[in-house]
Amino acid sequence: MKAFADLYAELDASTSSNAKLAAMQDYFRVTPHADAAWAVFFLCGGRPRQLVPTKLLRELAVKSSALPQWLFEECYSAVGDLAETVSLLLPPSEHGSTEGLAPWVESRLLPLRGIEPEEIVPRLLPLLQQLDRRSKLVCIKLITGSFRVGVSKLLVIRALASFGKLDPKRVAQRLVGYTDLSARPTAASFQRLITPVSDNGEDEHDGGQPYPFFLAHSLQLPVEEFAAQIGPPNDWQIEWKWDGIRAQLVKRKGQLWIWSRGEELVTDRFPELAPLAGHVSDGTVLDGEIVVWKDGQLQSFALLQQRIGRKTLNARLLEKVPVAMLVYDLLEWEGEDWRQRPQSVRRVQLEQIVMQCAQPQLQISALLHGEDWQDLARQRASSRSLGVEGMMLKSKAAQYGVGRTKDVGVWWKWKIEPYTVDAVLIYAQRGHGRRASLYSDFTFAVWDAPADVAGRRLVPFAKAYSGLTDDEMRQVDAIVRKTTVEKFGPMRSVTPTMVFELGFEGIALSSRHKSGIAVRFPRMLRWRQDKPLAEADTLDTLRALLPAVEMQPATPQGELKELW
Amino acid sequence: MELIVARTEGLYCPPGNFYIDPWQPVDRAVITHGHSDHARLGSNYYLTAVPGAGILRKRLGEHIRLETLEYGHVINHHGVTLSLHPAGHVLGSAQVRLEYKGEIWVASGDYKLEDDSTCAPFEPVRCHTFITESTFGLPIYHWPPQAELTSDINAWWRDNAAHQRTSVLFCYAFGKAQRLLAGLDAEIGPILVHGAVEPLNQVYREAGVKLPPTQYAGALTDAAQLRRSIVLAPPSAQGTIWMRRFGDYADGFASGWMQLRGTRRRRGVDRGFVVSDHADWPGLQQAIAATGAERVFVTHGQINVMVRWLRERGLDAQAFATEYGEEEAESTLAVASADDASSSSNTTEPA
User: Fold this and answer.
1) How far apart are CA B126 and CA B106, in angstroms?
2) What topology is assigned to B5-141+278-320 in CATH?
3) Does B337 contact chain A (CB < 8 Å)?
4) ipTM
5) What is the CATH class of A419-545?
6) Is the Cβ of B101 closer than 8 Å to some Cβ of chain A?
7) What is the pLDDT of residues A75-84, one digit of tens each?
8) Where along chain B do the CATH 3.40.50.10710 domains lie?
């Protein structure tokens, strides 16, 4: 455990990628494979379900430090991280445990799940007191499932690749599914990650392993420059950018798996896709988007949200919110990896597969055509009413790459501009992690009536915390402190003085919000220091953005009809 | 009778008719220490502890009308008996003890309990009423021992030197810098300082504090030597073009705020060293208990927390509104201002 805590401290301390790579390689070199297996799991974002309710961790800290509850809360609010707060408040202890990460996770931490609440504190405290402060922090983070440190999965892949003298793409491939919730990494699974490539040059696909997802870059150019920068539309395979859940459908040896982009196995969450097992041949992997699909029409993402996160799906929900998979790429066919073939070749075969499958749950993402980029830009303007996020441009020659790369071909996402309104900051809350003790999480409001109505009020409608530079954040923090009206817990109300341009992706009516409106992905685009408070937008401005009628289906265009 | 009250000009002693660390110009000012939120220009007469005279003149000017008092020596002013006692914060820092008609008050200014060899160690003074700071008044703050700190810094420097990377350690120019210097192992490599730090080193040396040899960063031109060196610079130097001369350097930040991962990450440095001239939570509790005071006034920092905590422990605790970097103490701005707000005015390097 100490070795892993030291690695964590080193990764956390450094801002240099090379130093982090070196730290991980050193760790892999000297650590037993069983421990390294878990280290890779956690570093890549794997998290076991929460082992101990946070309420009990608070209780543990309060009891063992003999502090009053209110003082614990003050500390938590200053630190902004529960695990760190607890580790700072537990009585200091010498590091006594010599056991590695694997025995800690497997025989001490995982068994904590499900034991009686009253037994947890007496059992956990002596465990934690075998650790020094650093290891305590890491250990509690593993327990709460909030373990995060400044390394990307890509960096872990690079470290493993250079440690095993392998191509990073190979390691990425082997890592797919490694952090799945049900995964229990062992010495053998670590061994498998770094083992030399076998003689035939291929790793065998065991079971339902998907491929690493290929991700798009965002295209931020005025449309006039498209032709000069990326050539004519004819070089590109153009589709709508669907607003759903990115997924891979894997069919091998009679079985079907669905993987989300987070490399989580989600087969069980979409039972309506299960019958496809009987209509797609073995050795097929398709990439696409899961969307709500009813009566042959695409439905809004808001509906899909009702299904996301539900552990159990009842018949009513399945009937109300049925899904389909809109596929747009073919990664494996007849057991063969097709990712190196050009996009256009993969597309032709994909169309064949969808046609032969002939099931309503498997749809193909239609191709779009235009005379020139201006023509396409006009079509793109209808994105919102169609319920899509813009267009995808995929180079017809592109191979299917790994992650957000451009080395073997490129995918562009040509997204529509977000909705924007000018809103007033009315509440502020201290942030977490890097923003601990900075007022960085804000609630924004718009006016409930036009400027000429006396006594009009500000109505809160969105929370946002991203989009400001560090410098702006510091300035806003200072203003929040100076203009505080009231404090309630970690929250402060302020005298309204600041106007921000907020951007968001979607807007819908909501009975749960005071304003009657819910927005999606709100964030700050600009601090409108030039804008007086009175000129901030009104609730009517927001309402005018609501989709006027039910969404038009996006499908009756392109070649889908020809396929059917 | 109240021996100290908060007035708009600063903390005021009515029977003695003088102020302690006033933030506006007054007739008579007793100065606890030379940090700029405590020692301000414009008063007619100043009184401070003997070891603090050099700093005060350096900062407020040679012309100020300054009287000095040895630690523990007593003077009488309008019937108020006044003496100064070491606060362990920076060179010359003092707690002010006032006695009038059998009533004893101590205003502690800023203080720290652990002895660090660059200033006289904190001395507990019994009193009826104690005025305490609360910069780090939360139980999450507890400093590692000095020995551990210096060995951590030297190990970091040694490792960087071995990899031929200059070590840049950001710290406040007055107090923190000298304390860190005193712990550096000069065997590892050259010790360089920013132009804001060296004049204060001079004052410390003149006061008889032993510091290792230092030179201006600009004076060292040998590239190999530069890569083995450690540089002490004020936080305001971070991200300026002054830093370019060090190439691919490793940087660290020395402050009590580094206790928290969030503050350290916001600073964007490779290493945070947890060290402060202020008392940590156990230090504050210990200092308050050692005075035997039944009444405690709490100033700058975690005022509400400390007042509530002390009241729950049966003490008569109250808040004292001051202008010693109040509130900012909990913000990130505090990283730059609470330990020593003065460094920023003094950071340009001489040509």
Assistant:
1) 8
2) Metallo-beta-lactamase; Chain A (3.60.15)
3) no
4) 0.88
5) mainly beta
6) no
7) 998 998 999 9
8) 146-273
